[in-house]
Amino acid sequence: MHYVDGFVLAVPKANLERYKEMARLAGSVWKENGAIDYVECVADDVPYGELTSFPRAVQAKEDEVVIFSWITYESRARRDEINGKVMVDPRLAGDEWKQVFDGKRMIYGGFQSFLEL
C-alpha cells in the first residue's frame, strides 16, 4: 500500500496563476526524486458548511479559493527519503510561497493507505 501526503490550503484568487506555476515546479521536483503521483486540485464544488467544510478548515476568505492536493509514495520510508531531497533542492529554496498563500492556515499530514481499488 502507498503512503500519501495530503494538503488543504487557501490561495487568494489573485495569486492562483502564480500558485499553479509554483505547483508545476514543485511537482516536477517531487516526481524527479521518486514520488509516484503529485496532484493539485482547485475547489469547484466545496460549499461553506454550517459546522465543517474545506473552506472553514483553512479559514478561506471571500477572495480565496481552496486547494486540495496530495503526493503519493511507495512507502513512508521512501517518502521521508524523497522529502529530504526535495527540501534541499535549490529550485524550491526561498520564501516565495509566503507571498502566494498563508502557510499558517494550510492543513497537511501523512497517511498510510489501507484500501486501493
From TrEMBL:
User: What is the name attached to this protein's record?
Assistant: DUF1428 domain-containing protein
Q: Which organism is it from?
A: Rhizobium puerariae
Q: Lineage of the source organism?
A: Bacteria, Pseudomonadati, Pseudomonadota, Alphaproteobacteria, Hyphomicrobiales
